[in-house]
Amino acid sequence: MKRLVVLGGGESGIGTALLAKANGYEVFVSDKGGIKEKYKEVLIHNEIEWEDTRHTELKILNADIIMKSPGIPETADLVREIRKCGIPVLSEIEFASKFTNATLVGITGSNGKTTTATLTHHILRQELNVGLAGNIGDSFAKQVYEEDFENYVLEISSFQLDDCIGFKPHIAVLLNITPDHLDRYDYKFENYIASKFRIARNQTKDDYLIYDADDEVIVNHLKYHPVQSTLLPFSLIKTIEKGAYLDKENIKITIDNTEIIMPTSKLALEGKHNIKNAMAASTVAHLLKIRKQTIRESLENFQGVEHRLEQVLKINKVQYINDSKATNVNATYYALESMDAPTVWIVGGVDKGNDYQELFSFVNEKVKAIICLGVDNEKLMSTFGNMVDIIIETQFMSEAVKIAYKIAEAGDSVLLSPACASFDLFENYEDRGRQFKNAVRKL
């Protein structure tokens, strides 16, 4: 009997433990922090051995395989010990993919993953039996264990890809690559780029790679590191023969000489970046033989994702917008780009080596005040201090929203788009977004 040790008792860890036990593995779950009560109950009910608040090396280093949570970095002492022992380390995505024959759609990129994965799933589920997993909802492993869909849309982060060895999605989507999480990649952008491209490394010519042809980082990497996959680019500025492009006000997608045309005016989601997300999702749907009418209708009625440019409330003619999911500069770039009213911008958190320069033109043009919400706001204060008349710092969401309420006038927008991780003041970006919405509702 093979022994699988799961490091991290969160969603992906518990799912992996269940799937492994059902497939005859001896399983041990170890979490250095605390495991949530609901997960402990699952482990006890399924008679899976576990520990929390510590890692017992004797029980870990005798594993045949280790599945580590994507949140645990390679630099952790325990991971170094595991590598020294030569024990294979897999991600949950890699492990679960071995136990399903489903058609896999893998979606990655620095920004837009959740929106594109959710939108793709929304279109496909109209006609197919399909699960949505990865960085979103119930874990992939748990879904394979419980109901094993015939198709999966997987939102995959670079951390998950780092421990993928044989993973091979039939359709891979690479939305964009901008510097993010560089603290995990020795501050080398090329390491992060290589990590994203792992999504296509095992693909053959019978598989597809859908990618943004306007993204120079992706295009350059493909030039010097070609992949085996059939390429289907999408673009807002080039004419694409095989793939998707913008022709005036219409999205045109051509695959195997069949064409689908979709007016952008009918898209439920606004902004240039969402035209790209729609192109990527529609290309996947087209490949999986979803009817054109279904694709069109799904794009028109898609409601978007919580914490992503989510319109919360209008109070005294001021629109409050929750974009808590913007955990890097590029995501905030999209948010500020889509603002068409004077904006009070709430920003800050854990800076991952951010370069704010690409935001300068938007800040000068659209932002009337900045509220820095973080434990350490020094970099924000010095970067933007001279650009706006009002810049204030706080460490409480309720206070940030009250300050915004005082500053904003009729016709303005208040935008929470932090450009940073949330872990200094909040549990995660969802917690940050919900606190923002609660504070707005209490105004």
UniProtKB/TrEMBL annotation:
Cellular component, GO, one term: cytoplasm
GO terms assigned for molecular function: ATP binding; UDP-N-acetylmuramoylalanine-D-glutamate ligase activity
Chief location of this protein within or outside the cell: cytoplasm
Regions annotated as coiled coil: none
Domain Mur ligase C-terminal, residue spans: 307-420
Residue span(s) of domain Mur ligase central: 107-285
BP-aspect Gene Ontology terms: cell division; cell wall organization; peptidoglycan biosynthetic process; regulation of cell shape
Subcellular location, record wording: Cytoplasm
EC number: 6.3.2.9
Keywords: ATP-binding, Cell cycle, Cell division, Cell shape, Cell wall biogenesis/degradation, Cytoplasm, Ligase, Nucleotide-binding, Peptidoglycan synthesis
Enzyme class name: ligase
Pathway(s) the chain acts in: Cell wall biogenesis; peptidoglycan biosynthesis
Catalyzed reaction equations: UDP-N-acetyl-alpha-D-muramoyl-L-alanine + D-glutamate + ATP = UDP-N-acetyl-alpha-D-muramoyl-L-alanyl-D-glutamate + ADP + phosphate + H(+)
Family that this chain belongs to: Belongs to the MurCDEF family.
Role description: Cell wall formation. Catalyzes the addition of glutamate to the nucleotide precursor UDP-N-acetylmuramoyl-L-alanine (UMA).
UniProt xrefs under PANTHER family: UDP-N-ACETYLMURAMOYLALANINE--D-GLUTAMATE LIGASE (PTHR43692)
Name used for this protein in its record: UDP-N-acetylmuramoylalanine--D-glutamate ligase
Organism: Algibacter mikhailovii
